[in-house]
Amino acid sequence: MVKAITEAQIFACSQSTELAENIAKSYGIPLGNVITSTYSDGEFQPSFEQSIRGARVFIIGSTHPGSDHLMEMLLMLDAAKRASARHITAVMPYFGWARQDRKDKPRVPIAAKLIAKMLETAGATRIITMDLHADQIQGFFERPVDHLFASTIFLPHLKALGLDNLTMASPDMGGSKRAYAYSKTLESDVVICYKQRAKANVISHMELIGDVTGKNVVLVDDMVDTAGTLTKAADVMMEKGAKSVRAICTHPVLSGNAYEKIENSKLEQLIVTDSIPLKQESKKIKVVSCAELFADVMKSVHENKSISSKFLM
């Protein structure tokens, strides 16, 4: 009789190798061996190069664009299922396609729901992710979802800055709940930006609700894509008399000319996590690692311990 493997095993999708290595180091076990073969037409095939029969497997991979990142996660989940892993956890620091969480006009997909079903079909028995674009995405799954909050990382960093006259800010109405949660912990004021879009990623108008005169403002959001909203908000706040403007954004998607916008903006600093690797360095961008947070949660999950202390917001 073959004894089932009880130790956890951690594997990385190629797009998140550095983060996975840091998570495995914090967890205290080596990163598992995966080899990916690529055909000349671009098709690829991941392969676990060690036994995972009966094991609890953690597969780490953010699903930021392009779509190959999502496909690699799906293939690794399927491979783990077919290799008889007992528990298969998809660790997705950034859950991509989450902005398509509803039908905002006729004849469009609800991509976040589709991806949830794809992950489950591929073999995921649990999902661990951080700062979903919309909390209700958890309800798209029939499997357990551990939705972590980057506030457990950002709050100590903000407190260490020692800013006086601190004011938390939301770059849009949808993020007001997040800004209020931070302000409650930090005992600060809150302001909100009201924006109107001409089309996706294009802001036609922005107004500020609240007073920022003489305040050190910190914008908070779940992600930064083109950086148009953040840089516009920073400009508006400085024009309204703010002392300084910083931003904390969990997921640094940073597409298009986002880096250029940030460098040329009135933002003093943009603080992000390493859920997505940066494409280039910037003197204005500070990276705070989420590796220890994920390692702690993964270990608690494996040992069937509570992780409620990681849910500060």
Protein architecture, described:
The protein has helices at 17-27, 67-82, 111-122, 151-161, 176-186, 228-239, 258-263, 291-302; strands spanning 8-12, 34-38, 44-48, 56-60, 87-92, 126-130, 145-148, 166-170, 189-199, 202-209, 216-224, 244-252, 269-273, 285-288. The chain is built from eight helices and 14 strands. The longest helix is centred in the N-terminal third of the chain and has 16 residues, at 67-82. The model is unreliable at 1-5 (pLDDT under 50). It is globular. The strands form three sheets. It has a seven-stranded mixed beta sheet, sandwiched between helices. The chain has a five-stranded parallel beta sheet with strand order 1-4-5-6-7, sandwiched between helices. The protein is of the alpha/beta class.
Write the layout of secondary structure elements.
Layout (H helix, E strand, L loop, with lengths): L7 E5 L4 H11 L6 E5 L5 E5 L7 E5 L6 H16 L4 E6 L18 H12 L3 E5 L14 E4 L2 H11 L4 E5 L5 H11 L2 E11 L2 E8 L6 E9 L3 H12 L4 E9 L5 H6 L5 E5 L11 E4 L2 H12 L11
Parallel strand pairs: 1-4, 4-5, 5-6, 6-7, 8-9, 8-11, 11-12, 12-13, 13-14
Antiparallel strand pairs: 2-3, 9-10
Cross-sheet strand order for the largest sheet: 10-9-8-11-12-13-14
State the end-to-end distance: 47 Å
The overall average pLDDT, rounded, is: 92
Strand content: 25-35%
DSSP helix fraction: 25-40%
Based on secondary structure, the structural category is alpha/beta
Shape: globular
CA-based gyration radius: 20 Å
